[in-house]
């Protein structure tokens, strides 16, 4: 019994020594503060890391910040503000990681909810074709209404190379309380989009309590 206990103690000590060696070999990195923004989108591929964040950014203003790392996240580029709003209006990104951003080689596409035009949220979009060094001026995605006139409650983006596609769920279509899903497409990397096409028209159902 005593011999078995000594063997267990010896194995336990070996495990501690092994674990200590593994921990010592790891290099724990100091957390990097990107700013007090909300709902960051982050993507990584082959040592490259990209992050975009909405909210109060590193410049002390409400906006969209972007940064990238070329060394597996050890260091990041300075935060680059990619929105050009001067009103300080509310901006939001999706809470599900990566949904607002697509990276395909040097093509980077980012969208966000923006309240710069009034109460209702518009969808704004920007793109980079040099790996995030520079971004194009913002553009509001056409929801067939005037800026700030309709609430776009959902947006989804797909992209490959120079092709970019959006599906927008827009409220109050045709002066009704119904919703519509519009499809937008670009073949020039987001420079221009074809006129939105109404893909489906959805009745709004009210849920009655029993």
Structure at a glance:
The protein is mainly beta and 210 residues long. It has one helix spanning 2-25, and strands at residues 38-45, 48-56, 62-69, 80-81, 91-92, 101-104, 107-114, 122-128, 139-140, 152-160, 163-170, 179-186, 197-202.
How many helices? The count is 1
Number of structural domains? 1
Uncertain residue segments: 7-20, 203-210
Work out the helicity level. 10-25%
Strand portion: 35-45%
Count of DSSP strands: 13
Largest pleated sheet: 5 strands, antiparallel
Helix/strand order: HEEEEEEEEEEEEE
Distance between the termini: 69 Å
User: Radius of gyration from the CA trace?
Assistant: 24 Å
What's the mean pLDDT score?
A: 78
Supply the helix-strand structural class. mainly beta
The quaternary state of the protein chains shown equals single chain
Question: Which word captures the global form?
Answer: globular
